[in-house]
Structure formats: C-alpha cells, structure tokens
Design a protein that fits this description.
By secondary structure, this protein is α/β, with parallel strands linked by helices. Helix content is 27%, strand content 27%.
Length: 161
Amino acid sequence: MARSKASSTFSVSSSCPADTARLAGLFAAGLKGGDAVFLEGPIGSGKTFFVRELAAALGAKRLPVSASFNLMRAYRGRLKLYHFDLFRAGEADMENIGLDEYLGRADGITAVEWPAAAGTCGVEPIKLEFELAGGDRRLIKMNAGADDRRKLAAIEGEWKK
C-alpha cells in the first residue's frame, strides 16, 4: 500500500517532567503494535525520560535508562517496547544492529533515539523533536505521516483537555 506524503504536526510546551510523562502516557494509550517513534534532540532534552515514561505507561516493570552503551533493550508491558539508542552508531553499523528486524513487529513499539544513522528504514515513524527551553521546560514538536495522522490528532486533543 502506497503511503501519502501528507503529514500532521503539532507542538507541546512541557513545563516540567510531569508534563513529559503525561505526554508519554497519551502516546502509550494511542500506539499499537508495529508503531515506531523516532526521538531527536540534544543530550539532556528528555528523549530517554520520555521513553522511560512510555514504558511505564505500557506497564513495564523494568524501566529504560540511557541505553548509550547498549544499542537496544526490550521491555515487557501491554506491548513490548524495543528501545534503540543509536547515539554511538553510524550508517555502517545499521546492518549489524538489526533495527529493521524490530520495526513493524506486531508485538511491540519501536522507540529510536538518535535515528539519523537509521535513515528511513522503510518506515514512516512518528517523529518527536525535543528542544531545551530553559530549566525543566521543553518544546516537543511532533510529526506524523498520513498513516498516523489520526493518532497524533487524538493525542493533541487529549493534551488540550
């Protein structure tokens, strides 16, 4: 099935870690097996914290920590969460990492920090871009392709309540 190039975008201003945790909870409620979330932003901008809260909202007992020295870790909850941290990976490493074997798996969600090395990997992920906005504040820009537009719209609607 060909994918449309149309996309949906919205931004959230997170004033504290609790806001980011709430956003992760909204994502957990709306994601389904096979979904992919790519997280970009500078070190310390909240990517790993978001993934940790996503895992918690999915019911994982063991929660993610920075995976910079472990390229992938899996967490069990309502859905498995496959957490990739590609900070130290380059394009040449991608074949050996096996990311493509996890993307689209019906039993889980794939969250990828530092996804630049992965290229497109043949998927249209939901993209989250984290920006530092002073203190604990973050600006989180979200973009989803046509296939995930409804999910992002639902998250936006819940966020505004």
